[in-house]
Design brief:
The chain is of the alpha+beta class. The chain is built from 6 helices and 9 strands. Strands 2-9-3-4-1-5-6-7-8 form a 9-stranded antiparallel β-sheet, sandwiched between helices. A hairpin with a 5-residue loop joins strand 5 and strand 6. The longest helix is centred in the last third of the chain and has 15 residues. The chain is globular and about 45 Å long. The N terminus is likely disordered.
């Protein structure tokens, strides 16, 4: 696939970053049910990363991928979104921390054959990490940074368990959007992504 040039609106420059974050912060799991449905059509694995304030091309370059090159093992789709970019892959590798330097990322890896993980990173440091099915057990430099969003989304933060298998994944995707301030909609998904590839992470 030939790489497309996607211009990224610089919300910070126009003083709109906080307004954008407030709007995304009000999203509920209903806003991302479509994404889970679309992804499950392709695979039982989900690997998605929300990246704040980077273009799809720059996000690909930071993980070592060349936009438009699909010759290497780790293929990644990069979509333009409001407030940044969203990376999707079917290998479910955790992206390198270089992706979050100078910005914020939130990654979700989940599926029946992989270790499930949610990781929110800022400037190259993992701030909050937990398994989507067990959000009470959190690690990172500031494990409670996203606690307000997690409570608002209804994640079980005591000992209770999820009632079905789809809910943890859906809530984790919604949390990724809220944490980064990146809004990914069906309209964004309908635009062909920029595809790149990289060597598989160690």
């Amino acid at each position: 696939m030939v790489a497309r040039h996607v211009s990224l609106r610089c919300d910070d420059r126009f003083g709109l970053a906080e307004e954008r974050r407030a709007l995304v912060g009000g999203m509920t799991s209903a806003d991302y049910a479509w994404f889970i449905e679309e992804y499950e059509k392709e695979s039982d694995l989900i690997g998605v990363t929300f990246v704040r304030d980077l273009s799809p091309e720059e996000a690909l370059r930071r993980i070592g991928a060349i936009p438009g090159d699909i010759s290497r093992e780790w293929a990644v789709e990069a979509y333009a979104a409001d407030g940044g970019a969203v990376l999707v892959d079917y290998h479910c590798y955790e992206p390198p921390q270089a992706l979050s330097r100078g910005t914020e990322t939130a990654s979700l890896v989940t599926g029946i054959t992989v270790d499930e993980d949610f990781a929110y990173s800022v400037d190259g440091v993992v701030v909050t990490r937990f398994a989507p099915f067990f959000p009470i057990d959190r690690q990172g430099s500031d494990p409670d940074r996203l606690l307000g969003h997690m409570r608002d989304l209804g994640m079980p933060l005591e000992e209770e368990e999820f009632r079905d298998t789809r809910t943890p994944t859906l809530l984790a995707v919604t949390l990724a959007a809220r944490a980064t301030g990146v809004s990914f909609t069906p309209a964004h998904y309908a635009v062909p992504p920029i595809v790149g590839s990289a060597d598989c992470p160690n």
